Amino acid sequence: MSMELLKNLLKTVSIASVTEEEIYRAIALNWSDFEDAVQYSAGEKIQADYIITRDSKGYIDSAITTVTPADFLSIIEQNEQDTQNEL
Q: Mean pLDDT across the stretch 61-76?
């Protein structure tokens, strides 16, 4: 991934940090995949709209919508088109 692409991506997404609080929350969730639980906990904290993943089955109990990377890019493109149409 080029640095320019990464810079552009960061204009659209937020990176959630993980602290002790998210780790404890992930433990309390008692999900079978701890890493997914940590990512979900971080997403909860920042009130994420989406979790972008290639493995959505780990987020069955998620209140946050999971999307594939390709689906997320489609969402971004649609939002940009909608914004242009409003102007």
A: 93
